[in-house]
Design a protein that fits this description.
38% helix; 244 residues; rod-shaped; alpha+beta
Length: 244
């Protein structure tokens, strides 16, 4: 008598565990001898069972293999931590070096700074660029938009500064301040009180702060009348750096 493959495959787990009835065992063996597909299926089940048994094997070899696996995992973890720490240290060094070269955290001694200034009434400045280029000039409609003023200052790195009509109409004076120093001035801590500009610190970077030339001149533009510039020391003493 022949049996369908599905029925035989249902009996295979019992057959492999040797718990099925004798007639069922004979039926399975008779079918396997004639059916190649079911024979292969039976072999695959044997392989799976053998693998499962090995996974639960508590022999000395398996314990040794597990121990070696744990050691390998610990070593890999240490290597990974070393790599991560090295990468973090490299990033920290790069950021730190960049900060030393760019962040204004070092004070410049006042004796190294020379200050001069010039105050111009806005309504008296030449309103074209055809005049003597040694003077401050204002032109209207020379920039990208027709309602923008352009201020040109001799020897200023930003020679052409665009200002809106609103800024120009609401201010009566423009003051050009020149700060000369053998170091690159990255920040000037200051505040206005009336027509006086009070400076409390000139700051540069820790590294890479030397001027390209012996003296670096930085100019700033203020839309107000400044009559004097005063340096305030830490003890409160004042020193006039420039007066009109």
């Amino acid at each position: 008598m022949t049996y369908p493959c599905g029925l035989i495959r249902d009996l295979l787990p019992l057959y492999l565990d040797d718990v099925c009835q004798e007639d069922s065992k004979q039926a399975v063996e008779q079918h396997l001898s004639a059916c190649e597909k079911c024979r292969q299926y039976c072999e695959s089940m044997k392989f799976i069972e053998d693998f499962a048994e090995k996974q639960h094997d508590n022999s000395e070899d398996m314990r040794l293999a597990d121990g070696l696996k744990r050691i390998k995992m610990k070593i890999n973890k240490k290597i990974r931590n070393i790599i991560l720490c090295s990468a973090a240290a490299a990033v920290f060094l790069i950021i730190g070096f960049n900060a030393l070269c760019t962040v204004p955290i070092k004070s410049i001694d006042l004796k190294n700074v020379t200050v001069s200034a010039a105050v111009y009434p806005i309504n008296e400045l030449p309103h074209n660029l055809d005049v003597d280029q040694d003077s401050v000039t204002i032109s209207f409609g020379e920039a990208d938009t027709s309602d923008t003023y352009r201020i040109t200052i001799p020897d200023m790195p930003n020679a052409k500064i665009n200002m809106t009509e609103n800024v120009m109409e609401h201010n009566e004076f423009v003051t050009v301040i020149s700060w000369s120093c053998p170091y690159l001035i990255r920040e000037i801590k200051s505040e206005y009180q009336g027509d006086t500009l009070y400076v409390t610190a000139f700051q540069t970077t820790v590294l890479n702060n030397k001027a390209p030339a012996n003296v670096q001149t930085t100019q700033s533009l203020e839309f107000k009348e400044i009559n004097q510039i005063v340096f305030v020391e830490e003890d409160g003493k004042e020193k006039v750096l420039w007066s009109k």
